[in-house]
Design brief:
single chain, alpha+beta, about 30% strand
């Protein structure tokens, strides 16, 4: 099947399990007519909802791609009711490099939506998801973790929507994922993300943040595996006897990253946190301090929290420069 940004031999409209690639044209110094082979799978059985499962949006976030690979290998098409479109390593150049951004064009794929079919490879990939995949789907699941720069409390993410009915469906789906924490995140108002674009397309949308620090957390892999299973059951694509109800049912507590969630540094050095992930903190309380290692005469600069809530994310690694986010506070939703 051809598209505006590449081609694939996968037929999205036939039953069974198909695995293959989106072949994105890429002409470089040592390969005039080469392609970027983005892994792709479609598992379909009859009529039913279509759910996109995406991992590898950032190349240094590993739990999602691991779990999606398991689904591609192990899921029997006969147990599916509808269609799964699985893209386990969307930003393949970044995945191969273990990098948040693409080594080809230096772009963060999750800040390029809705993309550009005539743009750079990263912009073409986001265009393919936005223009080719979203119109086929009813729901979208984007599996992230904190990557190399953050440790994050494992959580399911609500993307804000101006549509109250869609917002309610997003909350229900996030609750079904059954993470220890559910958080509303607007990415400081940036609408160039995959989940923001999916919401604009009218899809029920779920994101995740599975631990981070550039490593694979066994606990987060288990949570991600169980959460995706729960979602497929929730969407009616896969009936699972192992699906678990929301931890707190209709009383589940949602948090949000408000305008004062992020603790930023104006200094270069090394950040020393005063609090562990999950700690409850208050606005005005000391978050930690930035030490100057190059000039021991300079006293450390103390940073403070700007919001009440729970320490949701912490900087990793310790070294920081002006503008870096050192800590994140998630506050209870009203």
């Amino acid at each position: 099947m051809g598209s505006k940004v590449g081609d694939t031999d996968i037929d999205f409209n036939i039953d069974g399990k198909q695995t293959g690639f989106l072949r994105l044209p890429y002409s470089e110094h040592d390969d005039a007519w080469g392609v970027i082979p983005v892994p792709l799978a479609v598992i379909r059985n009859g009529d039913g909802p279509t759910v996109i499962l995406q991992g590898g949006n950032h190349g240094d976030e590993y739990e999602g791609p691991i779990v999606l690979g398991e689904i591609i290998r192990d899921l029997d098409p006969a147990s599916v009711n509808g269609r799964l479109i699985i893209v386990p390593a969307l930003n393949l150049p970044a995945v191969q490099a273990g990098s948040r951004v693409s080594p080809i064009d230096g772009l963060n794929l999750n800040r390029t939506f809705p993309g550009d079919p005539s743009g750079s490879p990263t912009q073409q990939l986001s265009s393919w998801v936005n223009d080719e995949l979203f119109p086929m789907a009813d729901a979208f699941v984007d599996l992230h973790s904190g990557g190399s720069s953050l440790s994050i409390v494992p959580s399911a993410i609500v993307e804000p929507s101006d549509d109250p009915a869609l917002t309610a469906r997003n909350h229900e789906a996030v609750a079904a994922f059954n993470a220890p924490m559910s958080v509303v995140i607007s990415n400081r108002g940036d609408t160039r993300t995959s989940t923001a674009s999916a919401v604009r397309a009218g899809l029920v949308t779920v994101g995740t943040e599975m631990a981070g620090a550039g490593t694979v957390s066994p606990e987060a892999v288990k949570l991600c595996r169980r959460g995706v299973n729960n979602l497929l059951h929730h969407f009616g694509v896969f009936k699972s006897a192992d699906a678990s109800p929301p931890v707190m049912g209709t009383e589940q507590v949602f948090h949000e990253l408000g305008r004062n969630a992020h603790v930023l540094t104006e200094d270069a050095g090394v950040f020393e946190s005063f609090h562990a992930l999950g700690s409850r903190v208050r606005a005005g309380e000391a978050a930690g301090r930035v030490h100057s290692l190059s000039d021991p005469r300079k006293p450390p600069v103390e940073l403070t929290f700007w919001a009440d809530g729970v320490v949701y994310g912490l900087r990793h690694p310790g070294r920081v420069r002006p503008g870096n986010c050192c800590a994140v506070v998630a506050s209870p939703c009203e």
